[in-house]
Amino acid sequence: SILSTNTIRKTFIDYFASENHCYIKSSPVKPFNDPSLEFVNAGMNQFKNVFLGLEGIPVAKACNSQKCIRVGGKHNDLDSVGKDTYHHTFFEMLGNWSFNDYFKKEACKLAWNLITSKPYSIDPNRLYVTYFKGDDSLNLLPDLETKEIWLEIGVPKHRILPFGLKENFWEMGLHGPCGPCTEIHYDHLGSASRPHLVNKDSADLTELWNNVFVQFNRLEDGTLIPLEKHFVDTGMGLERLVALLQGKSSNYDTDSFVPYFDAIAKISGFSKYSGKFGFEDEKGLDTAYRILADHSRMVSVAIADNVFPDESHGLRRVIRKGILTAEKFSPGNGVSLMVELSKVAGESFSHIFPEVTNNLRQIEFVLRDENELWQEIKAKVKNDWENLKKDNPYLESLSDVQSKGLISSFNELKDRKLPPKSVLPADLCLIFYDRYGLNPQVIEELARVCDYFVNIPQLQKDILILKEKNKALIHTSQKLDIPKNTLEYISNHFLPTDDSFKANYTKNSD
Ligand code: ATP
Ligand code: MG
Ligand code: MG
Ligand code: MG
């Protein structure tokens, strides 16, 4: 029988709970302890201060299924979404942690035992493991200990592969806790030996689980200091695990996504999702299905956690791309399709993330509000734009989201009636960037075709200032039940309420 997403998640939690791990509820996707981060992008985020030694160790061992979003910063998978089978904007990361308790040997054994035993029963002949091969420039020795552990566990030599800093040395950022990691990869095609596909961005052989051995603190000057305490920090993509356990080569063919596709087909009357990619997806319909389902999940989860488009550029981009994609299926009323899909999210997350189910009204409110803003922008479009585009095929070639922003930016620019060949005022460039989502390169291109100039260094500086301001805004807007530290978080689970949002939202809207 086929295991459902809910069973697969529960199996993971139950397994680690039976190994004395304390189950920790997912933290909200809006980071509660790190204003420099737009979204939580890994299960360890909520334990960052524990690793840094700034907070005491909450429990010896923990596990959870963390809501993660990767649409910006160090981890940005936005451009892959829709095009591949295994990257999402929103996904769940199953994780287990040891806080100065067990280390490499037990971590590897726990992981291997879970995935190769019942009920997961993954064929070991489809698995590869990787370990850190060392780095001379950092004076880091190869992690042969981990290699030995895998051999002892019984993984054949040819399935244990060394990789360097990029793949197998995990770092939080430029400085902070870090250490070698070991990863488990899965071959979707079969049990033949295909080590050359590991870590090569192939949909046929994908990364499944990362086990990080947090052993060092990287100082600002780059030196590595061994930590007094050691930690294990792991992350396995739930959707990827579900795909392979359900015998699917694509995450989108699992019960995590099918309900969205069914709803889209039913509401739009379009032909069903048929799983085509790239040039085989001639009309781009299946790609649109994937983007819409993915973005609906992300948008629902983020808004339910009180992230709002006015304070999150990432959320605004995903909402706009979502509505735009939904317009393909439901011309003129894409937003209502998005609202319907948020209900699918509410249903499918009801057991694990009830905050989504409980905040459907909030999600609809924000989606419709964003859509109104969007319609206003569209209403401003004038014929001049079409003429401009004819002379400048480059504009045509920009992505949909950017060209919507371009049209608005173009109109805004015209309204200013600036003398030709002048440098665009800094405030106008910021409007292009912040309100209409253009990146500096596109702003420069727009200026060029309209016979203006942009002071790019100035714009870059302004963007940084704006980001700082937004961060401050995000921080002060967290006047809900935000825990002061990890301990408080664990003992006092955060759940946004329906009523608190409106004051919050109104305050941050202009
Ligand atoms: P990849 O190399 O496939 O992009 P990663 O090395 O960036 O993955 P990690 O930062 O090691 O990923 O995160 C741990 C696990 O989370 C991965 O092994 C993978 O199973 C899962 N994961 C990472 N990014 C995504 C994503 N965008 N969508 C779904 N699952 C993901
Ligand atoms: Mg990645
Ligand atoms: Mg990787
Ligand atoms: Mg990885």
UniProtKB/TrEMBL annotation:
<dbReference type="GO" id="GO:0005739">
    <property type="term" value="C:mitochondrion"/>
</dbReference>
<dbReference type="GO" id="GO:0004813">
    <property type="term" value="F:alanine-tRNA ligase activity"/>
</dbReference>
<dbReference type="GO" id="GO:0046872">
    <property type="term" value="F:metal ion binding"/>
</dbReference>
<dbReference type="GO" id="GO:0000049">
    <property type="term" value="F:tRNA binding"/>
</dbReference>
<keyword id="KW-0436">Ligase</keyword>
<keyword id="KW-0479">Metal-binding</keyword>
<dbReference type="GO" id="GO:0002161">
    <property type="term" value="F:aminoacyl-tRNA deacylase activity"/>
</dbReference>
<feature type="domain" description="Alanyl-transfer RNA synthetases family profile">
    <location>
        <begin position="3"/>
        <end position="510"/>
    </location>
</feature>
<dbReference type="GO" id="GO:0005524">
    <property type="term" value="F:ATP binding"/>
</dbReference>
<keyword id="KW-0547">Nucleotide-binding</keyword>
<keyword id="KW-0067">ATP-binding</keyword>
<keyword id="KW-0694">RNA-binding</keyword>
<keyword id="KW-0862">Zinc</keyword>
<keyword id="KW-0030">Aminoacyl-tRNA synthetase</keyword>
<keyword id="KW-0820">tRNA-binding</keyword>
<protein>
    <recommendedName>
        <fullName>alanine--tRNA ligase</fullName>
        <ecNumber>6.1.1.7</ecNumber>
    </recommendedName>
</protein>
<dbReference type="GO" id="GO:0006419">
    <property type="term" value="P:alanyl-tRNA aminoacylation"/>
</dbReference>
<comment type="similarity">
    <text>Belongs to the class-II aminoacyl-tRNA synthetase family.</text>
</comment>
<keyword id="KW-0648">Protein biosynthesis</keyword>
